[in-house]
């Protein structure tokens, strides 16, 4: 990695960020495109074609459903790292996922004085390596870049990460893979 990622504990700062089980979920429109030769070219996410030739950040920049995530990655100073060689597995919350957080949470996290907290939340969504949906097993623990673990739940084709539904799996980039999720997952500390 070109830039080291910071690991910070939240020290309970987000214990108020619980989400109700009845929170609405959104579905990302997913469409794979195929070339004339039958080779998969990419996946449509947020109105843009995510292609394997672009890095994770370059793909995310095109998605209208990930503008909050992109702004947060830039505010935390993680864009350069996530454009690096990786590989990374990113569980990418949509704008609607960020909207589920209590009012004012995103605005507070984006303030320069809260960069450490923001970095902790974002790096909790990143796992070293390239894990596609087929690699994720029910009950599997994934150690994040932040240092804590995420738990995979899998029933048939449905995959959840700490209760967040994977709405679009396997968005392949040159330096890893992204799985779109419908909820922001928060570290315990």
From TrEMBL:
Record-annotated FAS1 domain positions: 53-185
PROSITE patterns named among the record's database cross-references: FAS1
The entry's keywords: Signal
A cellular component annotation (GO) from this entry: extracellular space
Claim: Transit peptide is one of the keywords in the record: no
Pfam families found in the cross-reference section: Fasciclin
Record-linked InterPro entries: Adhesion/Biosynth-related (IPR050904), FAS1_dom_sf (IPR036378), FAS1_domain (IPR000782)
Signal peptide: 1-23
Protein name: Fasciclin domain-containing protein
């Amino acid at each position: 990695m070109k830039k080291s990622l910071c690991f910070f504990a939240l020290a309970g700062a987000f214990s108020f960020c619980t989400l109700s089980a009845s929170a609405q979920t959104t579905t990302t429109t997913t469409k794979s495109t195929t070339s004339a030769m039958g080779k998969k070219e990419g996946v449509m996410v947020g109105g843009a074609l995510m292609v394997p030739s672009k890095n994770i950040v370059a793909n995310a920049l095109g998605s209208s459903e990930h503008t909050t995530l992109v702004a947060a990655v830039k505010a935390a100073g993680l864009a350069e790292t996530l454009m690096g060689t990786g590989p990374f597995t990113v569980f990418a919350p949509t704008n609607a996922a960020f909207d589920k957080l209590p009012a004012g949470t995103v605005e507070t996290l984006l303030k320069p004085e809260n960069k450490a907290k923001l970095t902790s939340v974002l790096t909790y969504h990143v796992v070293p390596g390239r894990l596609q949906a087929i690699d994720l097993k029910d009950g599997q623990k994934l150690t994040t870049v932040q240092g804590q673990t995420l738990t995979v739940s899998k029933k048939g084709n449905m995959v959840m990460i700490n209760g967040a539904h994977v709405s679009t799996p396997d968005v392949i980039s040159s330096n890893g893979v992204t799985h779109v999720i419908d909820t922001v997952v928060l570290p315990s500390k």
